[in-house]
Amino acid sequence: MLTVSKRARDIRYAIRDVVVFAKEIEKKGKEILYLNIGDPVKYDFDTPEHIKNALIKAVRDGSNSYSASEGVLELREAICRKEKKDSDIDIYSNKVMVTNGISEGLQMLLGALIEKGDELLVPDPTYPPYTAYMKFFGGKPVTYKTVEEDGWQPDVNNIRSKITDKTKGIVIINPNNPTGAMYDRKVLREIGDVAAEHELIIISDEIYDKIVYEGSFTSTSSVVKDVPIVGLNGFSKVYLMTGWRLGYVYFNDPEDELNELQESMKKEARIRLCPNTPVQNAAVAALDGPQGHIKETVGKLRLRRDYVFKRINEIEGVSCTKPEGAFYCFPKVDAIGSKWKNDKEFVLDFLEKENVLLVHGSGFGTTYGAGHFRGVFLPPIDMLEVAFDRLERFLS
Ligand SMILES: Cc1ncc(COP(=O)(O)O)c(C=O)c1O
């Protein structure tokens, strides 16, 4: 009898796991409204034409071989320019690694960083691969509180109280998935102070850095200057290249404290050969070319955010903080815990009765995420209208 590893068998990824249930309902001939996955390209957003053309040109011009494992130099240099402009950091291309999406970068990072029993502080609620990969590598994700009443800002005292001698670092996801919170400069500075005090690294995921609706985004690297920072970013969301799979990791590390980590990640990069070569060429065009689509995308999304925010808060027993960035709402449903045993039951019941797929909040965080659901506000307003009419009917 073939046995499989426990680490793989135990993987949970709520965002895609719920799709299994939706597919079952589809088999019965029902049409499902999918509000579960954060992929703008599945709705009425598309990769900008000049980026598509750059990919086609790269393929036509023969950019079809393996590339350097850490990514092509031209792209790493373009990433340094972008991060200088947006995050005020001075790094050379040797401090950048290109990966097949942040997802791969995260896998390599935790693969190199985490030994059995090591701890990493992750927000609750969080983007689930952070906890999933921690467990996969034998580590222990330790969640810290983010405060719904405070627009889901991190509770810095709670972070401090969770530090042990096993803690290796603090994860920041800003703007946040699933809450849509954008973190204050002050909070980022305070997290930086805690990290400095305890000699921890910061892992900062900024994949939604340009999808913001209120105020302006602050990169962790621009305000935290005395802590080694591993930055994660990518092309999926801002450049509408989800299916192309490209991201990067940078090491903002003036004291060279992350050299060994980076060297180990480079070894991991070598055994997976390289990131997609022609897509790397297209990514240079994305960073260096016209940026007009970003304003257009954010403009469209702002209208959808406003619509969803209004609709949710009009429904009795449901409340939501206003998402300031990304494209998710994370409302609380009062009747979870009484009418429905838990948030997963709520989501599956809504799916079965009204054929709309959301994700249960506890899939993002079992303490502060529970009792909530996550929905995307990516679809056009007429589709959102149908979805929220159904939610209103269902809850009434
Ligand atoms: C916070 C966050 N990080 C990373 C990712 C995945 O990024 P990529 O497509 O670059 O693997 C997502 C996707 O939803 C995300 O929300």
Description:
Helix 6 (101-113) packs parallel to helix 7 (129-136). With 396 residues, this protein is of the alpha/beta class. The chain has 2 domains: 6-46 and 293-395, Aspartate Aminotransferase, domain 1 (Alpha-Beta Complex), CATH 3.90.1150; 49-288, Aspartate Aminotransferase, domain 2 (3-Layer(aba) Sandwich), CATH 3.40.640. It has helices at 6-9, 14-17, 19-27, 49-60, 73-87, 101-113, 129-136, 156-161, 185-197, 220-223, 259-271, 277-288, 292-314, 343-354, 381-395, and strands at residues 33-34, 96-99, 119-124, 140-147, 153-154, 167-173, 201-205, 229-234, 247-252, 318-319, 328-329, 332-333, 356-357, 359-360, 373-376. It has 15 helices and 15 strands. Helix 10 (220-223) links the parallel strand 7 (201-205) and strand 8. The radius of gyration is 21 Å and the shape is globular. The structure holds pyridoxal-5'-phosphate. Residues 38, 101-103, 127, 173, 177, 205, 207, 234, 236, 242, 247 line the site of pyridoxal-5'-phosphate.
CATH superfamily of the largest domain: Type I PLP-dependent aspartate aminotransferase-like (Major domain)
Separation, N- and C-terminal Cα atoms: 51 Å
- The shape, in one word, is globular
Beta strand %: 15-25%
CATH architecture assignment of the largest domain: 3-Layer(aba) Sandwich
Number of helices: 15
Note the main sheet.
8 strands, mixed
Please, what is the average pLDDT? 96
Ligand kinds: pyridoxal-5'-phosphate
- Low-confidence segments, given as residue ranges, are none
Task: Tally the structural domains.
Answer: 2
The multimeric state of the shown protein is: single chain
Helical residue percent? 40-55%
